[in-house]
TrEMBL record:
<keyword id="KW-0067">ATP-binding</keyword>
<dbReference type="InterPro" id="IPR027417">
    <property type="entry name" value="P-loop_NTPase"/>
</dbReference>
<protein>
    <submittedName>
        <fullName>Heme exporter protein CcmA</fullName>
        <ecNumber>3.6.3.41</ecNumber>
    </submittedName>
</protein>
<dbReference type="GO" id="GO:0022857">
    <property type="term" value="F:transmembrane transporter activity"/>
</dbReference>
<keyword id="KW-0378">Hydrolase</keyword>
<dbReference type="InterPro" id="IPR005895">
    <property type="entry name" value="ABC_transptr_haem_export_CcmA"/>
</dbReference>
<dbReference type="Pfam" id="PF00005">
    <property type="entry name" value="ABC_tran"/>
</dbReference>
<keyword id="KW-0547">Nucleotide-binding</keyword>
<dbReference type="GO" id="GO:0016887">
    <property type="term" value="F:ATP hydrolysis activity"/>
</dbReference>
<dbReference type="InterPro" id="IPR017871">
    <property type="entry name" value="ABC_transporter-like_CS"/>
</dbReference>
<feature type="domain" description="ABC transporter">
    <location>
        <begin position="12"/>
        <end position="218"/>
    </location>
</feature>
<dbReference type="InterPro" id="IPR003593">
    <property type="entry name" value="AAA+_ATPase"/>
</dbReference>
<dbReference type="GO" id="GO:0005524">
    <property type="term" value="F:ATP binding"/>
</dbReference>
<dbReference type="InterPro" id="IPR003439">
    <property type="entry name" value="ABC_transporter-like_ATP-bd"/>
</dbReference>
<dbReference type="InterPro" id="IPR051782">
    <property type="entry name" value="ABC_Transporter_VariousFunc"/>
</dbReference>
<dbReference type="GO" id="GO:0017004">
    <property type="term" value="P:cytochrome complex assembly"/>
</dbReference>
<keyword id="KW-0813">Transport</keyword>
Length: 219
């Protein structure tokens, strides 16, 4: 059972968070205040540290220096972070290649202890005809759609989305925007890392930029 979310008004507060991986300083003194229910776009070039920051917030990586809280839980309480966040990874991590699309979503519901409409979620991302196809046989764009359906069903208080528009055609990008707006409309706190600022800003008016591991407000 997930630990109770505290009444802290902030979903995320980071102070001086730094992370070194080997000899590389990936994050450098990151400060961030993110209110509950806020949506924010995270911009930056490849290698800027976007994915690393998302993984820190999801409890998948520890930090070298600094501190912070996610829904009142310390960054060191990585189990609680994982219980209150959902990370939609760029590379499809979290999908099970030998399970069908329907089975992947049903497993997500069991994993989070939730009930939900699996077939409805598949229809939402236009994967009904692929419902019984194993994930390993999906195209990159179809895997991205399945990951979006998984995020929709997971409904964690903090949803972290890494490059949601990559590998999608125009119709797929419209689906991604619809799903992300739906999550935000439900009060989910949303962080969207993307290379397409015009698309990401259609979900979140506030934009941040990571450059060389340092985080600043983007104009």
């Amino acid at each position: 059972m997930a630990a109770a979310v505290t009444p802290d008004p902030y979903a995320v507060q980071l102070r001086g968070v730094s992370l070194r991986l080997g000899q590389d300083a990936v994050l450098r003194g990151v400060d961030l205040d993110l209110a509950r229910g806020e949506a924010v776009t995270l911009l930056g070039a490849n290698g800027a540290g976007k994915t690393t920051l998302l993984r820190v917030l999801a409890g998948a990586l520890g930090v070298s220096r600094g501190d912070g809280r996610v829904f009142g839980f310390a960054l060191s309480d990585r189990r609680s972070l994982r219980e209150h966040t959902h990370l939609m990874a760029f590379d499809g991590a979290g999908l099970y290649p030998d399970l069908t699309c329907r089975e992947n979503l049903a497993f997500t519901l069991r994993m989070y202890g939730l009930s939900g409409d699996v077939d409805g979620a598949l229809a939402r991302v236009d994967l009904t005809r692929a419902a019984d196809r194993r994930a390993r046989f999906l195209s990159a764009g179809m895997r991205k759609r399945l990951a979006l359906a998984r995020a929709l069903l997971a409904g964690r208080p903090l949803t972290l989305v890494d490059e949601p528009f990559a590998n999608l055609d125009d119709d797929g990008r419209a689906v991604a925007l619809d799903v992300l707006r739906d999550l935000h409309g439900r009060g989910v706190t949303l962080v969207v890392a993307a290379h397409e600022p015009e698309l990401a800003r259609a979900v979140a008016a506030r934009a941040l930029r990571l450059q060389g591991g340092a985080l600043t407000e983007a104009p």
